[in-house]
Amino acid sequence: MNNASSALKVAAGIFLTIALITIVVILFISAQEATKTAQNNFSDIQTELAQASFTVYDETTISGSQVTNALRKYKGKDQFGIQVKTGKNIGGQWYGYQLAVQAAGNPDYGSVLYEGRGDIANTWNEADNEYVNPSGKFKANVIKDSSNVVRGLIFTQTTVR
Taking the CB of residue 95, how many other CB atoms lie within 10 A of it? Predict the structure, then answer.
């Protein structure tokens, strides 16, 4: 009888051990899934925050001083370009990188072509065609490539009538 009681205790111990291991494995798997979901959500939030700084330029009218601030802020940003079209220079000048912006439906739209030739110092020189009047009004547009990454900004000066 003593042997049967010991065998039952050993069997119960093995059963409890297996049950405990099963519970731990189930918890670990569900924690992995929760971690993956949290990582995906964090990635989405990161993308939104990265593009949130450009929402101020999305189809809005801003001042010339805000244009020069944007030029300074994004100067040196890799694979990013800013085009400024002024009353004197309606063709515009690219700063940073020049982007493909000819046809919005084109798959190459927003892609980087080559480094722009604009010098930000010219935007402060009133005698230059690239001069940006600090009190002037500019229509701002955000340029995104085919993978929805912000690649640049276009500022077009509006005429005051």
Answer: 25
